[in-house]
Design goal:
By secondary structure, this protein is an all-alpha fold. The chain folds into three domains: 2-70; 121-199; 204-245. Helices cover 69% and strands 0% of the residues. The protein contains nine helices and no strands. It has helices at residues 2-44, 48-57, 63-73, 121-127, 129-149, 153-196, 205-223, 226-243, 252-257. The relative contact order is 0.03. It comes from Rhynchospora pubera.
Length: 258
Amino acid sequence: MGNHKRFSGGEEEEEERRESTSSENHEGSESESGEELEIERELADVPFEELQRALADGSHLSAPLKKKKLAIENKPGRANKNRPMEVSSKIRPKKFREVVQVPKKVVRDPRFESLCGTLDTEGFRKRYNFLYDVQLPAERQKLQKMIAKSKNPDVISELKSHVSWIDKQLKSDPNKATESKILSEHIKKEKEAAKIGKKPYYLKKSEIRNRKLVQKYNELKDAGKLDAFIEKRRRKNASKDHRYMPYRRPGESSGAKQ
């Protein structure tokens, strides 16, 4: 009886194994049939001539499957859940990419912007007149002392260039002041004339220059320095003309006598 039970138990195990293998074979056949259906779908659009070539060569039949396999292998993914996804930099980007549109930076010049208003030259000179009267002369004296104490030629040349810049600023300030004074006087006269009904007249740069020369002439005449100024200007112009005069060559006088 015991042996009969053993044989019956062995038969049951064999039946279970047969059932499992049959189910696996069934699943395998289903997967194979599914793959065959996919291959049939892929080959449905292929022309008959290409199929004949593929049958003759035996190389093109496996191309769709190879492509599918490569696509599965090259699918981006994370090697580990704790690592980020790695993407190869060799992959060509798309032809049309969505680029974030950044607003263009607009550069504005306050000289040509109506929002900034107009420059008030008289008000500017009144507010910042202390720069030309106090600060720039004091800075010039300080730089002159530094030049006298310093022994480094590079530092001395830099300080001298700064001193020359200050001299230019101090020299140009009176000219600008006289120009603004001439313009303000002319504007006052034109405003009075406009009240009567006359059209306004705007001064040209050449007219402002001529009025400046007339004003300087009157100031020098009143101070008694007109003759010295004219002599200085004459010598300066003579030195300029002397530069462009042709020089006599060494052999010209002897050649002329012969």
